[in-house]
Amino acid sequence: MTTQTEQQSTGDLVRQMSEQVSTLVREELTLARIEMVEKGKRAGVGAGLFGAAGALALYGLGALFVTVGALLALVMPAWAAALIVTVALFAAAGVAALVGKSQVSQALPPEPEAAMASGKRDVETVKDAIQEGRHA
Description:
Blueprint: H1 4-7, H2 10-73, H3 78-107, H4 113-135
Organism: Paractinoplanes toevensis
Protein name: Phage holin family protein
Keywords: Membrane, Transmembrane, Transmembrane helix
């Protein structure tokens, strides 16, 4: 009993292999592009949160100056309210910085890990098929 590949000419087999490899490479590149876009978005969110942390820290610094001024005036507990606002702003800046750091660390290094793993599996499959063909 002969198989379909045994009936085809070498040229046809080479052409089919070329088409299949070309399709495989295109699909792997598409997967890599999708993965890189996803990681880029995550890095953008992290960078935005770092920016928000910086802005909140600047507001906190301004509130700290108000607190120091109120404290120096030694009048009424207005300084206590200003101090509470200052602590709240710095706490919010700290939370935003930690979340931003987490987002950026998840996006780095920007390697298409899934596409690379898939490519390695494809190479192993081809190697196994070649070795099976040699032993047959």
